[in-house]
Amino acid sequence: MTMELSQEGVESLLKGITIPPRPTLLIEVDRELKRPEPDLKRIAGLIAKDVGVSGAMLKTLNSPFFGLRTKIGSVPQAVMMLGARNAGNVVTGLVLRNAMGGGAASLERFWDSSAIVASINAYICSILPKAPREDAYTFGLFHDCGIPVLMQRFGDYRDTLKYAAGEERSMIDIEDERHGTNHAMVGHMIARSWGLSDIISQAILLHHDPEIFVDQAESVHPLSRTLVAINFLAEHLNDTALRLRADYQWERHGAVILDYLGLTESEYAELREDVSTLSA
To answer: How far is it, in rounded angstroms, from Cα 170 to Cα 165?
Structure first.
């Protein structure tokens, strides 16, 4: 069943969990985005003040995974090409890592994996225009952002991750059993508090719920459903083609995902080869 959220349910699930505050850069960019006519030069100037974010933005956009035909040489050029909202989405995703302890050695592998999945999301959208590439990239960075928060909250959460990796059951069910909450819920609340769109926030909440491809409930936005499908495929490719490990969830739901995205087995095989080549 698709998760339904009541205010009481949210408060219960988040008891004792601190949602990271929204960084100043994002507050300032969002303030400009909410103007009747956002000033692209001002948005570029705000982003350019943060050397780390500026460099990461250009590196991301010029990655072969992003599939741009023209190399981006500056933040103003990037903002002009993406547009105000898309630039804000990409920056929000890039700021996430530092704001949530991305520099900690224990989390480096986690963030690196999230970045790879986000890049694969963007690549899928560049060859399969089912969703905005920038939204898919941001969703890829944010979809598991509840994990480091739960890692800080529960001393035995790493054990939960190890246990879930060998289980065929949904990770969400295992987290709920062991901790009374789950990373999809926490990530959903982070996305909302950081000003991400309702579409991306809903996709984060539902990214471990394959039933959304079966019942097609009207309560689930079509683009949220598509983002989940793209990310499901990207995680599968990261796990099996790049990290060379089993993917039990794909064995159960992969055919439904490919059907939803309109991909044949031969197109899937070609995509898998492309991802392996781009990552080499």
So the answer is: 10
Q: In whole angstroms, how far apart are CA 223 and each of 36, 135, 172, 231?
A: 25, 10, 22, 12
Structural domains present in the chain? 1-19+105-280 (1.10.3210.10), 21-99 (no CATH)
Instruction: Say how far apart CA 250 and CA 177 lie, in whole Å.
Output: 23
CB 217 within 8 A of CB 2: yes
SS (H, E, C) the chain: CCCCCCHHHHHHHCCCCCCCCCCHHHHHHHHHHCCCCCCHHHHHHHHHCCHHHHHHHHHHHCCCCCCCCCCCCCHHHHHHHHCHHHHHHHHHHHHHHHHCCCCCHHHHHHHHHHHHHHHHHHHHHHHCCCCCHHHHHHHHHHCCCHHHHHHHHCCCHHHHHHHHHCCCCCHHHHHHHHHCCCHHHHHHHHHHHCCCCHHHHHHHHHCCCHHHHCCCCCCCCHHHHHHHHHHHHHHHHHHHHHCCCCCHHHHHHHHHHHHHHCCCHHHHHHHHHHHHHHHC
Structure tokens at 241: 């083609």
Q: What is the pLDDT of residue 102?
A: 55
Query: What is the model's pLDDT at position 62?
Result: 92
Cβ(84)–Cβ(33) below 8 Å: yes
pLDDT tens, position by position, 111-149: 888 999 999 999 999 888 888 899 999 999 999 999 999
The whole-number pLDDT of residue 1 equals 41
Model pLDDT, residue 19: 81
Supply the pTM of this predicted model.
0.87
Low-confidence ranges of the chain (pLDDT < 50): 1-2
